[in-house]
């Protein structure tokens, strides 16, 4: 049983450009993170795009949905910026009905010492193996069904709609 | 719903003593790891002991079983040295039949930059919320039932008995 | 013999704001860095400002010069953004003629795992103790007299004018 | 002008063996540290041995002295375990009289997040360029002449004999 991981960018994968002093995307760090986690799962990592989720277009979101529908795996983890993660989860729920899809991300880039990325990746890979078919967000050590979650921007955490 | 975390030591929590040049136990780093993971779960962390699992006594193992049985929570994560993790899992399975218990650990101390500990903690906390009643080991991004797992000491990974 | 350290900001001290996704200044990390380096020098750390050196005003630069002139110590290290470090060095050389002043900084924030900040701080504190009176820049493991150095912005390194 | 770096092991270069749970030597991390420090010096790194300095033999110490005498460079940094660093410094002072030699090391392995190694390496490379001919120890942000220094084992710091 293989887990598919789709990389779409987000804070997770931001790096520091020492010439410009700005954060930017280069290659995903998911492979390095899986090595560090000594991950023994059969994982198939594919980068779909490297974007800030606030700048994700309708077409890009549709591409993610299509990738979920067309891949062979029935268990999919998506790394995604946190700002529009809920919106993408909703689009996937509309288009994919027979797979377990878990979106995750990070509040701090993996390249920073204090990142939550490794914790979240371990969490998402575990939920995707054990939750029933459906679309979920895995953040802050919890899983949320796609239709009962929002990002609380003031606190920087995800929470249920009717907490 | 609260998750109980019992700390027992193991590689997870080893630190470097700069005066002796040896690895040793001080306080657990689980609280710091939960902060770094921005963990929003209601978690109750309790240190039962700080031991190398090769030196865990029969009495200490019995104490862990008793703690699992007597605590209020139905979902329990135990941080544990990897060398005798399977043995402790078996003892818990004998004594606790109505809870979900997940043991986890690390191959490299959290205090080292390259530790798998944060990944494993995120994984264990997720499995404990989503797996049915039973005793499991969460390592290498996978979950193993207590009676179908061994540590492969040559490779430093956990695997099914009949892989 | 005490070394005075003046903090002025720069990449050195930038942190990641997980709510806005932007880099920003909070408190200096120089004290934490000195602890990590087990620095046994008698060091007196004072934050003058926390600014990106591209935004440093004429008045702020004058304030740094005055602080160097008026402090009791004859050995001064200044942490500073790299972009206008040479300009500030020149201003100090104009105004301070009887002390050893060493400016240093970082290409990557200390909060990032891959930062050069700790290396540079160790370097600057060593040069300030062993170089004669004058104004210097300590970057890339080297010391440069204030009037024979420029930042090569394309390569992200400091170099002599007539290399 | 080139600086020669001789690697001899010590805490600096200890790594964690995740199979045995013990600290051990593999390859030196000095090259990686120089990259991280964006070191622009012309540095020639050579590993002479990888030993715990408590186990350094008389023959090995003689080999270090010979290497210092015979190399082309007049500025030499030696990475060395802290426990017998003073003893090796004395042997070098007996055998090498026309070069600047700076010994350094670390209280915590570089592989640990909290290591002082990068700070010390930046310090040693700076002192070796700016101190007169002689043999020195660079630790804790200070330089000590070889004949006025001891390791205070209780405090884990280096100090002058007549502090």
Describe this structure in words.
4 copies of one chain form a homotetramer. Chain A has 163 residues and is of the alpha/beta class. Chain A has 4 helices and 10 strands, in the order βββαβαβαβαββββ. The first copy, chain A, has a 6-stranded mixed sheet with strand order 4-1-5-6-7-8, with helices on both faces. In chain A, helix 2 (58-70) crosses helix 3 (85-95). The model of chain A has no long low-confidence stretch (mean pLDDT 96). Chain A binds chain B through residues 33-34, 36-41, 43, 107, 114-116, 118-127, 129-131, 138-143, 156-159, and chain B through 33-34, 36-41, 43, 107, 114-116, 118-127, 129-131, 138-143, 156-159.
Q: Radius of gyration of chain A from the CA trace?
A: 15 Å
Largest sheet of chain A: 6 strands, mixed
What separation lies between the terminal Cα atoms of chain A? 35 Å
Shape of chain A: globular
Q: If interface size is counted as residues with C-beta under 8 Å from the partner's C-beta, which chains form the largest one?
A: A-B, 36 and 36 residues
Major sheet: arrangement of strands of chain A: 4-1-5-6-7-8
Number of helices of chain A: 4
Estimate the strand proportion of chain A: 25-35%
Percentage of residues in helical conformation of chain A = 25-40%
The stretches of 5 or more residues of chain A where confidence is low (pLDDT under 50) are none
SSE sequence of chain A, one letter per element: EEEHEHEHEHEEEE
According to DSSP, the number of beta strands of chain A is: 10
Look at the helices and sheets of chain A and give the structural class: alpha/beta
Oligomer state of the chains in this structure? homotetramer
Mean pLDDT of chain A: 96
């Amino acid at each position: 049983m293989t887990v598919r991981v789709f990389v779409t960018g987000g804070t997770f994968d931001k790096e520091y450009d020492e010439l410009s002093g700005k954060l930017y995307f280069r290659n995903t760090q998911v492979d390095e993170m899986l090595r560090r986690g000594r991950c023994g799962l059969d994982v198939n990592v594919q980068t779909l795009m490297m974007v800030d989720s606030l700048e994700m277009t309708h077409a890009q979101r549709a591409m993610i949905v299509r990738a979920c529908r067309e891949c062979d795996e029935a268990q999919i983890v998506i790394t995604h910026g946190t700002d529009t993660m809920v919106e993408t989860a909703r689009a996937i729920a509309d288009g994919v009905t027979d797979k377990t899809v878990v979106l995750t991300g990070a509040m701090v880039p993996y390249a920073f010492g204090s990142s939550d990325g490794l914790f979240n990746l371990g969490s998402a890979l575990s939920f995707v193996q054990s939750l029933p078919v459906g679309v979920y967000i895995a953040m802050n050590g919890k899983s949320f069904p796609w239709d009962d979650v929002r990002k609380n921007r003031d606190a920087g955490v995800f929470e249920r709609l009717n907490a």
